[in-house]
Each structure stands twice: as structure tokens, then as C-alpha cells.
Amino acid sequence: MPKQMPPAHPFDDDKLKEECGIFGAIGLTDAANFVALGLHALQHRGQEAGGIVSHDPELGFNSERRFGYVRDNFTSQSLMERLPGPLAIGHVRYSTAGSKGAAIRDVQPFFGEFSMGGAAIAHNGNITNAIALRKELIERGSIFQSSSDTECIIHLMARSLQRNIPERMEDALRRVEGAFSIVAMTRTKLIGVRDPLGVRPLVLGQLGEGWILSSETCALDIIGARHVREIEPGEMVVISAKGGVESHFPFRRQSSRFCIFEHVYFSRPDSIIGGRSVYETRHQIGVELAREAPVDADLVCPVPDSGTPAAIGFSHESGIPFAMGIIRNQYMGRTFIEPTEQIRNMGVRLKLNVNRALIEGKRVILVDDSVVRGTTSRKIKEMILDAGAAEVHFRIASPPTAWPCFYGVDTPQREKLLAATMSEDEMRDHLQVNSLKFISLDGLYRAVGEAGGRNTKCPQYCDACFSGEYPVAPSDMIDKGFELKAAE
Asked: Which of 54, 63, 92, 323 has the fewest CB atoms within 10 Å, i.e. is most exposed?
């Protein structure tokens, strides 16, 4: 029986899940070792499982896929010796499409043999017409080995009549709708692709004579690679050890719609997006939030850890002292054993503890990155009041999350999103706090560097989870009865 991952902790269950992380390296001795380090830096993007595929000129392709953290699997010398060669790609996963149960067959990268040789692929994002593609492919004789939408790309490549693997990938991706950043490999080439809207991130780095592809720049830092540039929306790069980087644009050019929630929550604060520090952007979100929603209070406290930069920005702008009023237990991971009902009922307290000496008698502003279902927010509020706080005010560093994401983020059904069924005042009453304010969508756009706010005719980012305006129609979900936002 395959090892099964334990259920997520209650604190994590009320957060949007961080899609997936991808990483690839070429032209480096024992490239898989660098990939493992890169995946470790991208662990925040997926904690369910990880995999690495490598290629050695003499030993061919080798693959290892495991459940759990990178540190618990891809640090074993005996395992890494089974991944030789100067070319490798890897993936860390949180399931956003396909089966929610842990199954090793769904762990990427996926590998396939074609008439011109083998290829492996790892994908961050979500294919919004995967159900229709899968049905079509099965009717034409394809046999699927996983429940992942990514496998559709492998089968489309196999059926393509193009002459080489990069061209077959282009051919396949023209049939795909949705969001995708991809790293792939042949026997001699590393390939990177972003969808025409550039919803999901992908960056190019260089280490000596070798080249790197990664979801974020923080993974370049861990191996000492130089950040060269971002892969552009709609761009495909084909990299060989001796020939360097070849770039072309196989898709019709469109205006970029990068995921704005990368700035708010998904990306690590030490990463760079669009030439701008994620930390500085989150700090500025706090500044904008303090300008839009001031409140008379004694302390500004972050909900660890993602709320911290915004809380610092709020404190600086408002002049209200910053304090670590909530402490996170850094050693209580997702795999914590919950053996009894009594321990399970402790809920959030297993991960977060209130610094009573700071909180007692104070009017407290809690800064968090988002409110999804609201269950964790209520528990944190109760902890703060139990510690003797005089007042609790929530300030949220993103607009209300009222719509599900179909581009690679595991969002609850719309009716389970608190903001989908309640106004801001109703959410305040539901959470039983003194006040609750979200940053406006325009304020968020200003914080990420758009001085004029959001362009309502052609938004600069994908903000569908806030606005309900989907840049790519979620075909499969519409077929299932999902209703898009009515035109205003």
C-alpha cells in the first residue's frame, strides 16, 4: 500500500493552498542535487508530495517520486545516487485537480516515451478544459495512468504529428486552456513554457555554465544561481547545455494577467516578482490598508507568518506599535500526529499561541493575508480575547475572496467562501470582532505598483478570486453548472 499523507492541520485548512512548485537544471554535474535544493526552497508551494526525473547519457531517464517533504526524502545519498546526470526537473505538489486522495500515480513529473525519445514534464497551474480533453483522448484510445490534468499534455504530445518534442509540446499546449507554467526535459534539452496570460510564475537563472528554471527567485538563491529574467507570458525557452537559451513565442500575444495573489500570499517574501521584492509589496499593502481603514488601537499584531510584512507596513503608516502578539510553533508541521479527540479540539492552539503579557488589556489590530471560510479567524479572535484583549480589530491584506480560483489554487466551492454570502459588515458580526476591513482592490493594485489602481476595462492582473472576472473561461466548471458573474 502507498504511504498516505495525514490530513492537514485545522489551521492550514482555512488557507488557500499554494498550487505547486517547479524547478529544472541543465549543464550541472549531478543536476538532481540542485533540483532537490530548489524544491526545498519551493516547499511552501506544495507539501503533499514531490518528485524528480533526471537523465544521464549512459543510464537514461530515472525517476523518484515520494509523499511528504523534500527534506524527508530527497536528502538521502542512496536515493540521490539513483538520479544521476547533468539534466533534471522536479515538482512539489498540492493537489488542485484530480483526486484529492494521495496517490503516487498523481505525483509529478510525468514521463513518457515518444517515437523520438523520452520526455518528462512538470506543471504548475490548472487546465480548465481538462475534462473535455480527457474525454476526447480516452475516446480515441488514450489510456490514462493518473487523475491529474497535466497528463492530458503528455497524451496530446504523443498524438501530435510534429517532428520533435518541443514542437509537439507547442502543438499540445495550443489545445490547452487555463493557466500553466511548465518545466520539461528531453534527453538533451530543458524546456520552459508560460501560458499566454502568464498567470503562473516562471524564472530563468544561470549557475556557472548551467541553466535553471524555477517558480520563484528564492530557489535560485539557495543554490547561488544568478537571476537572469522572468520567462515572459506566452514564451517557450528551449535550453541545451552547449547551445544556450533559444526563445520563441508559439501563442498569440495577449496582455499579461499574472496572479495578483502571488504578491499577497503564495510567493515567499524573499522572492522577486516583476523586479520588485515581494516583501516590499506586502509592506506597502499594509501601508495602503492603514490609509484606507484606520482604527484607534494600542498594538498591530500579525497573524503569523504571512501577515507579518503587511502588519509592519500598517504599523509604520499608522504609528501604532508593532508587536508579535501571536507566536507560531515552527516545529509543528503538517504531519503532526493527532491521536485523541481532546488534542484535535485544541485546533489552532497547536500552531499558534497568544503572547498574553503583550495582549492583556490592549486594543489589538490583527493583520492577516486573507479570510477564506472564516473558521480560523474566529478561533484566533477567541484566543486573543481569552488572553484579556480589550478589543479585536481585523485588517485583511487582500480584498474579500468571493470567487473560486480555477487556475491552480485549491479554493473551496463558492458557497463556502465567507465573502460570497456575506457583506463586510455581516462578516464582522459573524466573526464577532469590533471591526473588520479589507484592502480595496484599487488599494491592492496601488500596493503592487499600479499607481492608478485597477484598469477596469483591461485589468493588469488576474484577480478573479476577488472580482469574479475570469480571464480564461473555466470551461469544465461551466459545463458542470458553475455560473459566471453577471455583466455589470
From this structure: 63
Q: Give the rounded distance of the alpha carbon of 352 from its chain centre.
A: 23
424 half-sphere exposure, CB direction, 13 A CA radius: 16
Nearest to 51 by CA among 31, 71, 36, 29: 36
334-345 per-position pLDDT tens digit: 434 444 545 544
> In the prediction, which pLDDT does 408 show?
86
**Is-catalytic flag, 218?**
no
H or E stretch including 310? helix 308-318
| All domains of the chain in start order, with CATH | 10-257 (3.60.20.10), 277-328+344-453 (3.40.50.2020)
Residue 292's Cβ-count burial label (10 Å; 0-12, 13-18, 19+) is: middle
- The bridge status of strand 20-26 relative to strand 210-214 is antiparallel
Burial class from Cβ neighbours inside 10 Å (0-12, 13-18, 19+) for residue 106 reads buried
Q: How far is 447 from 280, CA to CA, in rounded Å?
A: 9
- Three-class SS of residue 325? coil
Q: Which of 201, 184, 177, 273 is nearest to 237 (CA)?
A: 184
The catalytic residue among 20, 405, 462, 465 is 20
For CA atoms 437, 372, 331, 47, give the dihedral sign: negative
pLDDT tens-digit map of 357-406: 999 999 999 999 999 989 889 999 999 999 999 999 999 999 999 999 99
